[in-house]
């Protein structure tokens, strides 16, 4: 059996794609400790980095915890949480997201409708004993 350049290129691209997709899966491995529960007060938030290097932000409420990736779905800018307005805002083009409504888009980037971008990707987190963990 012989390989052409095209076959070799396809194999290489398939391998790279699997590696990239695999890194996203590794980031959501269940049970990875993020922070001690006692370090995040009710109503508070905590920035952390996923295993795949992506930035994220978790929130603690009276009923539990939830988290989102903090890369804007418009162009990848780092979204910041503005507690006074209870919104996550991208300073690059002013897109805003509601973390208390599944990360949905409240306002699209300047010059664009909200429907042109996706909600923030959620990260599965939970309370496990004294820790907040992925999963």
Name some characteristics of this structure.
135 residues, alpha+beta, Rieske Iron-sulfur Protein, 4-stranded antiparallel sheet, 11 strands, 17% helix, 33% strand, 2Fe-2S, TAT_signal, Rieske_2Fe-2S_sf, metal-binding, metal ion binding
Structural commentary:
By secondary structure, this protein is of the alpha+beta class. The chain has one domain: Rieske Iron-sulfur Protein, CATH 2.102.10. 17% of the residues lie in helices and 33% in strands. It has 1 helix and 11 strands; from the N terminus they run H-E-E-E-E-E-E-E-E-E-E-E. It has one helix at 5-27, and strands at residues 33-36, 45-49, 55-61, 64-69, 80-82, 87-89, 96-98, 104-107, 122-123, 125-128, 131-134. The radius of gyration is 18 Å and the shape is globular. Residues 32-134 form the Rieske domain. Keywords: 2Fe-2S, Iron, Iron-sulfur, Metal-binding. One of its GO terms (molecular function) is 2 iron, 2 sulfur cluster binding.
Under CATH, the topology is which? Rieske Iron-sulfur Protein
Residue windows where pLDDT falls under 50 for at least 5 positions: 1-27
The main pleated sheet reads as: 4 strands, antiparallel
Find the structural class using helix and strand composition.
Answer: alpha+beta
The average pLDDT is: 83
Strand order of the largest sheet: 2-3-4-9
* Strand composition percent: 25-35%
CATH architecture: 3-layer Sandwich
From the spread of the alpha carbons, the general shape counts as globular
User: How many structural domains?
Assistant: 1
Q: Give the helix tally.
A: 1
> Regarding CATH, which class?
Mainly Beta
Share of helical residues: 10-25%
- The run of helices and strands is HEEEEEEEEEEE
- Radius of gyration (Å): 18 Å
* Extended strand count: 11
Keywords: 2Fe-2S, Iron, Iron-sulfur, Metal-binding
InterPro entries: Rieske_2Fe-2S, Rieske_2Fe-2S_sf, TAT_signal
GO molecular function: 2 iron, 2 sulfur cluster binding; metal ion binding
């Amino acid at each position: 059996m012989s390989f052409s350049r095209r076959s070799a290129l396809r194999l290489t691209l398939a391998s790279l794609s699997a590696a990239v997709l695999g890194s996203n899966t590794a980031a959501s491995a269940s049970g990875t400790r993020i922070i001690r529960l006692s370090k995040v007060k009710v109503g508070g938030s905590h920035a952390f980095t996923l295993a795949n290097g992506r930035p994220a932000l978790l929130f603690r409420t009276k009923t539990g915890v939830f988290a989102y990736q903090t890369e804007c779905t418009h162009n990848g800018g780092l979204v910041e949480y503005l507690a006074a307005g209870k919104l996550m805002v991208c300073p690059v083009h002013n897109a805003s997201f509601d973390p208390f409504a599944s990360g949905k888009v409240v306002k699209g980037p300047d010059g664009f409708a909200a429907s042109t971008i996706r909600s923030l990707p959620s990260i599965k987190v939970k309370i496990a004993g004294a820790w907040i963990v992925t999963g």
